[in-house]
């Protein structure tokens, strides 16, 4: 099954039902059984209701997941409302600040295979809830992504991929030039090329992508390998893919080289940094502004990767381009 992403705007109560119906249709398309499909419907209904009642409206982003033959649906709820001051209290089943039955976030957490929440007073709220059709084993890496096309288009000119291996991970984000079908074709070609790379050397991998993209309109991309045994991350980037390593003591931005894969590139250079425990590697296309600093979001580095991606998308999306942000962290236990 190809990964699917859907965005559901929720600004008023009439859109709660629309989100629930869209979630039910997505679950059916993914082959969900009756019980998890029902759980997903309740999760989406509660998240959408909270957006209207407490967040001043917001966005739900649904993404399909695959692991060990199992299928899941991840839902991000994003708002820029007043935030939550008593998080532990609102996660209790039965608690409500809006005079409702109070199922809310407590029910969402109970019905979800994976749940996380980040909120700041006057800084909005982000909620992650995933429902699986079955019980896959926990992945070795925590990978989160928001990847959406140019507003109004069906396909994106961005693409991304993460390949896990023993003691490491191999990651790519690519942005095909422009928008629409031709950009999408370039990004898909890069994704196929990445899947076929034998060596996990970022510089040589970049040249392989360059050769295989000559038949397309071209793209920009970044390739990174996190090697836990060596305790380092290596990266090569061509063009304006923004790559940041966030560590407990701060963040470092990786430099990129000018050029366009498939057209003209310089000899790729590799950059390396130590990888301390508790770090995260974040890549995004220019559909997001690169002016963010995770230090302004206390505690967010310790939340799930998808929640980090969702917060960055919510606060820094440009809204006039394809937009992709991918976050890679160690440890995927749900």
Can you tag this structure with a few keywords?
single chain; 334 residues; alpha+beta; Heat Shock Protein 90; Phosphatase 2c, domain 1; 7 helices; 33% strand
Task: Output the CATH topology of the largest domain.
Answer: Phosphatase 2c, domain 1
The shape is globular
Q: What is the CATH superfamily of the largest domain?
A: PPM-type phosphatase domain
Number of domains: 2
C-alpha Rg (nearest Å): 20 Å
Tell me, rounded to a whole number, the average pLDDT. Answer: 92
Sequence of secondary-structure elements: EHHEEHHEEEEEHHEEEEEEHE
Give the proportion of residues in helices: 25-40%
CATH class of the largest domain: Alpha Beta
Give the helix/strand class: alpha+beta
Count of DSSP-assigned helices: 7
- Widest sheet, order of strands: 1-2-3-5-4
Strand content: 25-35%
Give the N-to-C terminal Cα separation: 22 Å
Task: Describe the structure in your own words.
It is a single chain. This protein is an alpha+beta fold and 334 residues long. The chain has two domains: 5-133, 2-Layer Sandwich (Heat Shock Protein 90), CATH 3.30.565.10; 141-330, Phosphatase 2c, domain 1. The chain contains seven helices and 15 strands. Helix 1 packs antiparallel against helix 2. It starts with a strand and ends with a strand. Residues 97-102 have low confidence and may be disordered.
């Amino acid at each position: 099954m190809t990964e699917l992403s859907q965005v559901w705007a929720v600004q008023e109560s009439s859109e709660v039902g629309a989100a629930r119906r869209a979630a039910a249709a997505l679950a059916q398309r993914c082959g969900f059984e009756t019980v998890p499909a029902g759980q997903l419907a309740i999760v989406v209904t509660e998240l959408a209701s909270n957006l209207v009642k407490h967040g001043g409206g917001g966005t739900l982003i649904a993404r399909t997941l695959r692991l060990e033959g199992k299928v899941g649906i991840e839902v991000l709820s994003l708002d820029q409302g007043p935030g939550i001051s008593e998080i532990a209290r609102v996660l209790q089943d039965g608690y409500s600040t809006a005079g409702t039955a109070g199922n809310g976030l407590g029910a969402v957490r109970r019905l979800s295979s994976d749940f996380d929440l980040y909120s700041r007073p006057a800084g909005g709220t982000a909620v992650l809830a995933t429902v699986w059709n079955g019980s896959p084993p926990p992945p070795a890496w925590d990978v989160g992504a928001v990847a959406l096309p140019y507003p109004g288009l069906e396909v994106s000119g961005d693409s991304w991929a993460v390949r896990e291996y023993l003691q490491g991970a191999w990651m790519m984000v690519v942005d095909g030039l422009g928008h629409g079908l031709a950009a999408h074709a370039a990004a898909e070609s890069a994704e196929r090329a990445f899947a076929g790379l034998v060596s996990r050397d970022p510089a040589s991998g970049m040249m392989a992508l360059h050769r295989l993209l000559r038949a397309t309109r071209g793209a920009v991309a970044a390739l990174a390998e996190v090697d836990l045994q060596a305790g380092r991350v290596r990266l090569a980037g061509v063009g304006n893919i923004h790559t940041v390593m966030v560590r407990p003591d701060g963040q470092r931005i990786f430099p990129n080289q000018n050029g366009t894969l498939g057209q003209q590139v310089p000899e790729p250079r590799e950059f390396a940094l130590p990888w301390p425990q508790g770090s995260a590697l974040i890549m995004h296309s220019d559909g997001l502004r690169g002016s963010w600093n995770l230090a302004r979001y206390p505690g967010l580095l310790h939340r799930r990767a998808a929640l980090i991606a969702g917060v960055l998308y919510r606060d820094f999306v440009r809204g006039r381009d394809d937009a992709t942000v991918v976050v890679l962290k160690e440890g995927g236990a749900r």
